[in-house]
Amino acid sequence: MRQPSKRLQNLSAAIFSEMAARKKEVAKKRAVYDLSIGSPDQPPEDQLLETLLDAARQPGAFGYALSEGTAAFREEVARWYQYRFGVELAPDGEVHSLMGSQDGLAHFALAWTDPGDIVLVPDPGYPIYEGSVHLAGAIPYRMPLRAENGFLPKLADIPDEIAARAKFMILNYPNNPVSAVATVDFFTEVVAFAKRHDIIVVHDLAYSEMAFDGYRPPSFLQAPGAKEVGIEFNSFSKSFNMAGCRIAYVVGNSEIIKPLAIVKSNVDYGVFLPVQQMAVAALRMDREAGGKNSVGPVYQERRDVLLTALAEAGWDIEPPKATMFVWAPVPKGWTSREFAIALLEEAGVVVIPGSAFGDEGEGYVRIALVQSPEVLRQAARSIAESGILTRRAGV
Ligand SMILES: Cc1ncc(COP(=O)(O)O)c(C=O)c1O
């Protein structure tokens, strides 16, 4: 019997599938509150939908697009980076469109590694970071993200022989799943480390606009010298509720982007042209609104409603400064998987066990703020009424 490639064996999404299957069963018996997957539940702004429809009616709208993105798209991204972060980008070479940051992340290791090369990945981390390394036949080295270090990797703990074999390092702040944030000072240390060891830095800034209480997440490219060593992915999925449109971009060092562009232009074409026009309108709208992006307040209210209700029920959780996730410590006596299953079966609340994101995620569950405040309140009430929080596992 022929077997699929061995590479696939390292792409296990077992816990995600298990939670989905269990949810189906539980939903036959009771109300279920799905706080598992980070897919935005809100539509894009009306004016963006209108731009999309108008653009779709233009002649040529349905033709193939070039992989790098239209000049208008790349110019607007450069303008937005200047406005938002004070970072200068050349639209030709330093900006390249993507079909979601997932596309860029999935293909980057193919563009930059050979079998045996090492890639430094965060643990816990968004699954494609490590998955892409396995797909390319390279070797992931996990950098632990721990509460005592503010969920930042300790660069000094990376052994020299690992750093010597590492092609690139992936970072992600604001972070999924732990929702921690980083400063430009931290990024400056990363630049020094990358220069010392000749390592490329790949920063994933997917949550740049989903931030609360006036906090504005920085770009890695704001660190002095960052463009000499790195690139950054950013996306319209979360910032503008456009996840299904599949549009994002990579910016930064043109020599680092070039090999990724070669892989991409062989694998596929560019993003649907009307979606590129919609994205241009989104960035322009954001610049004109002067930082009043609506996604921040929507998720901030959800965060506050959920955490207040859970605190009343006896579950104290550090409020995140950004992202659509709450990284919640599991009460003593449970593994994160056991606790997630109990929340589902006894309270109907679906969350993802932290261990799904790497060994260092043990001890936490990830709650996605992807329901209305009313539903989040009901979910918290259901958890309180289940009595899970005051009981030990298996009792
Ligand atoms: C950290 C992170 N990076 C990238 C992505 C993928 O985003 P996109 O829709 O741009 O592919 C996600 C989606 O959840 C994410 O959480």
UniProtKB/TrEMBL annotation:
Cofactor dependence is on: pyridoxal 5'-phosphate
The question of whether Membrane is a record keyword is answered with no
Show where the Aminotransferase class I/classII large domain sits: 32-383
Q: Does the keyword Transferase apply?
A: yes
Q: Output the PANTHER family linked to this UniProt entry.
A: AMINO ACID AMINOTRANSFERASE, L-GLUTAMINE--4-(METHYLSULFANYL)-2-OXOBUTANOATE AMINOTRANSFERASE
Q: What's the family?
A: Belongs to the class-I pyridoxal-phosphate-dependent aminotransferase family.
Q: What is this protein called?
A: Aminotransferase
Organism for this UniProt entry: Brevibacillus gelatini
